[in-house]
Amino acid sequence: MRMIRGIFYILLFYFIGECISHLTYGFIPGSIIGMILLFLFLRYKKIKEEDVEGVANAFTKNMAVFFIPAGAALLGASDMLSKFWLSIIIVCTFSSLLVISAVALVQEKMEKPTKKAKS
Amino acid sequence: MLQLFKSETFVLLLIFGSYLAGQWLFKKVRFPLLHPLIIAIAIVMGYIKLVGMPIPEFMDKSELVNYMLGPSVVALGYLLYKQIDYLKGNVYSILTSVFIGSIVGIISVIALAKLTGADKVLIASLEPKSVTTPIALAVSQQAGGITPITAAAVVFCGILGSILGPYILKLLGIKSSIAKGLAMGASSHAVGTAKAIEMGVIEGAISGLAIGLMGVMTALLIPIFNHFL
Hints:
The complex is a heterodimer.
Chain A: H1 2-23, H2 30-43, H3 49-61, H4 63-66, H5 68-72, H6 78-118
Chain B: H1 8-29, H2 36-51, H3 55-61, H4 63-67, H5 69-82, H6 91-115, H7 120-126, H8 133-142, H9 147-171, H10 177-199, H11 201-227
Helix pairs in contact in B: 1-2, 5-11, 6-10, 6-11, 8-9, 9-10, 10-11
């Protein structure tokens, strides 16, 4: 029963998210709107945490599995990948290093004054 | 008989089985490049080649698993809700650093892609590279990217960040657990989070939070950046 309710809520927010996405010309993917809706409904106690807990954990803890079909379908794009592999590696490597550094440095610098102010 | 091994049931069996095999092998060898996902994808690719299944047919038969990507993004809303406590007192700094990270990520992709002579389609495919797979694929698709390239980039960034991330954080002299967790999750999504969990409890939880934040912010920012591109 609880599991059914969990699936119902997740699909419900997914569907509402898809509807909003459609109405806003697909500016934001429906699944992301659904995620924000689920968060807000949990946060403001409109739905019970226990109702989605099990299903949400099952989904998020094993997310990697759902990615296998898209990953294996890369075979179909092997032409494209062999054409762009250098660009992909250069762009992803440097951009990732920049993101790690930027996020860590900004948080490290901003956190200290907040901590002092709080304690 | 061969038809049975091309059935939907067998394809699904293979997908879950190959992931179990990947996890088992990863635990055995503990070599970071042998991420369970990579092993699983390699096994399934080998199967597609072996039975000579056309990619559209494979996509059709594995749709049940592929579909789950959408609901799993929605389910991230629950993780976000569970980790809200870590936000207290740090809301402003966390939002700011992930926001800046998201902008740095998008701008650096555009700049580096242009330097390497990439076109608009490739840029759209690479922009969501630091974001968790389901969001990245949705964003890429929406922006006119090639989803397989996005998928490849996401896996690459995940593994790269989980291997190099800890060294960079050390090099930069980062002390804060929140900063470490945020950086791992923001750059390398779930793969980085797995590494962050090894670094500590706060790192792990915050990294999970960063997946969601980075996903939402990047999804919101990419259409804006593309509009002016």
